[in-house]
Amino acid sequence: MASIISRNAKHFHFANRCLSLHRLRLQSPSSSSSVLAGANLHDPAFPHLHSGLGINYLASYMRRLYGTTSTTPDSQTTASEKSAESNSSEGDESGKSNQSQDTGKPVRGGPVSWLSFLLLVATGAGLVFYYDREKKSHIEEINKASIEVKQGPSVGKAAIGGPFKLVDHDGKPVSEKDFFGKWTLIYFGFTHCPDICPDELQKLAAAVDKIKKAGIKIVPIFISVDPERDTVEQVREYVKEFHPDLIGLTGTSDEIRNVARAYRVYYMKTEEEDSDYLVDHSIVMYLMGPEKMEFVKFFGKNNDVDSLADGVIKEIKHYKKK
């Protein structure tokens, strides 16, 4: 670049000298010849300039000179602009191509796309709605069933009780008819019972006393489930230990089996060693009504004296209000 500028400056300087010589020739031929004599018109850098050429050729040379000096940087500027435009156009085209490629490709999101998220939400809402509807329907069915039970007919009483023929602790034959018109509280056991039967009979005796204090008369009854050992004498001595009003009943094996079946009582011999054995049996008391000795309610081992007495009093009072 520096060499080009130096050469163009040399051309420009020489051209100015030629123009000055040409003006001198027009004004004074004698003076101009001396100046031309000092000019080196045969310089190898100016092969076309010599003393015989006129102003037209010099003007043409000046145009060439100025054209050379002006086009060199302009061409470089133009080239740089074209290069920039080319780069810009290439960038635009690459950007457009990238946009077109991006447009064609599906947008990839995270692990869960919007569509799958919406499907998940819709499914969850459906499940919640279904569960809530089923829950309300189930609650309505329960309420309806409970209302029907309350408003429906009363449930029949359990088939507990029935006719029987036994012997009391005085040796007198008795049957269910002997207790018609009386409230009775019956317990099944055996006289050789080590602990449960004595405890239950003591509870029965205490409850009977409490019921009497309430102005209600009730007959306590003990029925043996061990006919082999519980004779009349054995039963008489046994019931005296608990309460003076307690009536003891016994009988043959068939008679005991029949009465136990009528009252839904379970009993069985266990741990038999010679004549010493235990009898496994149901631990329950039955409250029987005065009308043909019908079943009213049963009381289990979990009832204490107070709950047993209060339960009996409540049932009897409720019965009298009918």
Automatic annotation (TrEMBL):
One of its GO terms (cellular component) is mitochondrion. The gene is LOC111466249. Belongs to the SCO1/2 family. Cu cation binds at residues 193, 197, 281. Residues 69-107 are annotated as: Disordered. GO terms for molecular function: metal ion binding. It comes from the Eukaryota. Residues 69-89 have a biased composition (Low complexity). One of its GO terms (biological process) is mitochondrial respiratory chain complex IV assembly. Residues 153-318 form the Thioredoxin domain. The keyword Membrane applies. It comes from Cucurbita maxima (Pumpkin). Disulfide bonds join 193-197. The chain crosses the membrane at residues 112-131. Keywords: Copper, Disulfide bond, Membrane, Metal-binding, Transmembrane, Transmembrane helix. This is Protein SCO1 homolog 1, mitochondrial. InterPro entries: SCO1/SenC, Thioredoxin-like_sf, Thioredoxin_domain.
